[in-house]
Prior knowledge:
By secondary structure, this protein is mainly beta.
Amino acid sequence: MGIRHPSVLLCCLGLALLAGVLALLGCGGGGSGGSGATSGVFEGVLVPVKMSQEGSSDMDGLFATVKGDKVSGGWIENQQGTKLMGSDLLLNSVTGKYEVLLTKNPDTFPAGTYVLKYMVNGETREYKPNPLSWTPLTRFQSVTKDWDPVTRYLRVQFNALVGASVRYYLRMYNPNSGLLRKETFETTATEIREFVPDSGTMQVMLVADILEGNAVVGKVLHFFQESTF
């Protein structure tokens, strides 16, 4: 393939490391929730993903993340209660969150109920969002990336995703390890300019978080081929 894909980079998003969102203050979520789940702000996300790739095929995905005091990872289960292969959430040191991104060919994730299981002080909790559907999501149709080696500014331009409240940002990865090296601030603009101080080979991912109110309900991703900065 033209870029490193689920077996290397995308799976590494979960290893180092996008419908429903859980955002609770000092409590657990779902049917197994209870007092004492965290001593601070807890965040959890389990959403469908549409993904495009420069020089390679489109994919669908399932993204999950958890963050909070005393949280130590988690995994995803389908509506039959079966753990999805490769769904363990592991710590992303840049964001401080446990994350995983699962990918499949388009239209192969069954719509329906998925459950985010997570650990708090060794106890298993769960969050069960509304049934997920990939149908409402659209992919980026026009994305360009320009790099100026003199000023060391990266510029990414893209089409707005119509009919949704969206915030956009970039992630930059080591293409060999999959480790996240940088994440930009969020914006509603359709152009992102970012200073890149570090030299080396990196892979850039454009992220669109689809919102309902303040809740993330879906993600649209575009992976660029790895390039030298």
